[in-house]
UniProtKB/TrEMBL annotation, chains A, B:
Name recorded for this polypeptide: Ktr system potassium uptake protein B
Name of the gene encoding the protein in the UniProt record: ktrB
Keywords: Cell membrane, Ion transport, Membrane, Transmembrane, Transmembrane helix, Transport
Presence of keyword Transmembrane: yes
Transmembrane spans: 12-34, 73-101, 132-152, 192-219, 231-254, 313-333, 354-375, 411-431
Length: 450, 450
């Protein structure tokens, strides 16, 4: 009872988020079960209906049912509403909490922070959500119109083409990864225009709202000299870019002699690049991923585990967590006491947070693998790992086992999607490591490690 | 060139260790290829001969050849010599480096350390090795004689029984896990006397020399009130005990309805307990482990990855690394700024070391899995993970794929056995985090994590 204010703040942040998500799941379930949502004659099991609602709110995209075969046009419109609730919801809340923390530090380190006071930081939660909604809707609408015009000839009416084009744009921007075609984007395997547009939308959704806001602010001002991109923007953008290139190169190398055999070089390059981008958190595919070798499966699992930027539509441990871990490792190996990057010093508490996030996330995945191996004895270990990291990274790629999961298995995957999306781990620790001052100190003693 | 003394010290510690091991491997290869070592008519490939030498020096026990079918009595005697080189070698060097670090801290924190100055800390390297050799030889000889008497009736001569009994004791104490019988200890599935003796020897080897030394010191003194067990001893013993119980309970639960079906309760208990103990780093088995379910395979892989105590005959990330990680996680979740355990405070640098060890080890296992999936396309992912963690934990349990590995695969496993044994990761970081003081400080800036 000694730090009630801290305790309340902490409790409230987690509470708001979890409460928002439970509410959003319930509301999504309601929307997706309205009369006229399902096509005539279609029956969906209760567990699968809940699963789809959780998957949609967490913009993961894993689903035991076929979207195109199940939903009417009205149903698809409802699904798009749910994707907005999921994508914009967490992007807003995530950014808001982040600004709260930043502001609190600002009180202590005001001098240093002055240089970083970008306009969007001053906004309240309402203005912030307004900005995010505006930005995302603009991106989705522009993307949707481009898609609509491009695919117009494939459909009988403009309305039908627009529904499909908009869904493609919404699914890509919110990184939901749902697709009206059961084969995801595989029909567009040779359509690089669609692929490039989709990849751009995926990156815009997954790079994190603060990055988009800073970039927009940068281009809207004449006095650019006084503007400094935040450390967060620099770290997450570099890490994001590195992961895209690294993933693409690795998939290219691993599959060139396997499933890519016989492809033209540009097909190999695009297939590798697209699935690397998609593994950030979109989950769309242009290729039958079950044909990938086991080595590629493990690689993509690792990429999905890392996930997207914080304050984005993506999940996983997040790019910054990986970046801090790598920076720590390099500094530690060099024997440096402080971690410097982009002329800034990383705070110790952030190193600790990255440690906690990686430990907990790793442990969670390990436990999930063991439990699913028990509940799904017929499914191979690497496919389960793929499904688990896909859920935690809210990615939604699958080796095709989602519909084969038992009810227990589906519940576990739902919980992982929830945790991956909320980033519960990180929010639990957002205020960690700073609340309790000890009243006494024991003497320090070294322990042999490793 | 600013910290030459530190740099030299650091370089030397790693150098001594790596140099010792390369020398030991070369010498072992020489010993295991002397005339009269192989049975007549036996041909062993060069790669398999090197593999066995590395496996023996690192007391891992993985081997692509059958020990009993390949070596003569003289060969088995040579193998025992190699196991001593491996087991006692690293135990001595590991303890010595640990004392070096402790002494250096002692200069700074002499007052606090006085209470902990146990006798063995004052010993030099020569006296230390003498103590360790004395202790290990005593344990092995007592164990060997007990085994010899017990199995006497199964052999024609006392000499033959003694060779077998001594080998069993040496293999258990050094946690080598080699066995003259191709089925390991499976013939003793119902012999609980052999199993209990073997488990005791395994634990004595894997608990860490400092623990044994402190216990002996404790019992050799009358003034026990002034003696305090070191934090290391307390942490490693508690963690070791917890892992034994946790592993046994989990194996029992996971296999009761699978491979243990139809067994009596005491058979289930002993089989579960024995393989939990063995996964610390011994690798001996009383049961066909390929019959375990995939869930148990992943569980045992995790246990082998953790490994044994530092300064012991075992490998892995070590018990203390796990303990510090768990303590950190609990403290962090509670928002405590310092980590207290057993009335002592854990140093921040040790938390950082545990982070570095876990990150690097995890990354190494991940990379090894991906590479082996490429080089061994026909072998299942979970069996490769099992083999990899078995090598890194110098455990030596296998799902039977060692002899099926390609040459590249064998080389990777050899490297992992080497790293697991030397604890290269930890030694690289032993002096890490303390050498370079920065000449300037950048302003600190927070980053969104996870
Ligand atoms: K997704
Ligand atoms: K072993």
């Amino acid at each position: 009872m000694k730090y009630p204010r801290e305790a309340i703040k902490r409790f409230t942040a987690v509470q708001i988020l979890v409460f928002y998500y439970f509410l959003a799941i319930a509301f999504s379930f309601f929307l997706l079960n309205l009369p006229g949502v399902y096509k005539p004659g279609i029956e969906v099991k209760f567990i699968d209906s809940v699963f789809t609602a959780v998957s949609a709110v967490s913009v993961t995209g894993l689903t035991p049912i076929s979207i195109g075969d199940t939903y009417t046009s009205f149903g698809i419109a409802m699904l798009m509403v749910v994707l907005q609730l999921g994508g914009i919801g967490v992007m807003s809340l995530g950014t808001f909490f982040w600004l709260m923390i930043k502001k609190r530090i600002g009180l202590r380190e005001r001098q240093l922070m002055m240089a970083d006071h970008n306009q969007y930081e001053l906004a309240g939660i309402v203005q912030l959500i307004r900005q995010i909604v505006q930005l995302i809707f603009t991106i989705e609408l522009v993307g949707g119109l481009i898609f609509t015009v491009y695919i117009l000839n494939d459909f009988e009416t403009f309305g039908e083409a627009f529904l499909n084009g908009l869904f493609m744009a919404v699914s890509a921007t919110t990184n939901a990864g749902f697709s009206l075609d059961n084969a995801s984007l595989q029909p567009y395997f040779n359509d690089y225009f669609i692929q490039i547009c989709t990849m751009i939308l995926i990156v815009l959704g997954a790079i994190g709202f603060p990055v988009l806001a800073e970039v927009r602010y940068y281009f809207s001002r004449n006095k650019r000299k006084n503007f400094r991109f935040s450390l967060f923007t620099k770290i997450t953008t570099v890490t994001f870019g590195f992961l895209l290139v690294f993933g693409a190169v690795m998939i290219f190398i691993l599959e060139s002699m396997n499933s890519f055999k016989g492809m033209a070089w540009h097909e190999k390059v695009f297939t590798a690049l697209f699935h690397s981008v998609s593994s950030r958190s979109a989950g769309l595919t242009t290729f039958d991923v079950t044909q990938f070798s086991n080595a590629t499966d493990i690689l993509i699992s690792s990429l999905m585990f890392i996930g997207a930027s914080p304050s984005s539509v993506g999940g996983g441990i997040r790019t910054t967590t990986l970046a801090i871990a790598v920076l720590f490792l390099i500094s530690f190996a060099r024997g440096q006491e402080v971690i410097h990057v982009f002329h800034r010093q990383i705070k110790i508490v952030d190193v600790f947070r990255s440690y906690a996030v990686i430990l907990l996330a790793g442990l969670m995945v390990l436990i999930a693998v063991v439990v699913l191996l028990v509940t799904e004895p017929t499914l191979p270990a690497h496919a389960l790992l793929f499904e688990i990291t896909s859920a935690f990274g809210t990615c939604g790629m699958s080796l095709g086992i989602t519909s084969e999961l038992s009810i227990t298995g589906k519940i576990i995957i739902m919980v992982l999607m929830f945790i991956g999306r909320v980033g519960l781990i990180s929010f639990l620790f957002t205020l960690g490591g700073r609340t309790q001052k000890p009243h006494y100190h024991y003497p320090k003693e070294r322990v042999i490690i490793g």
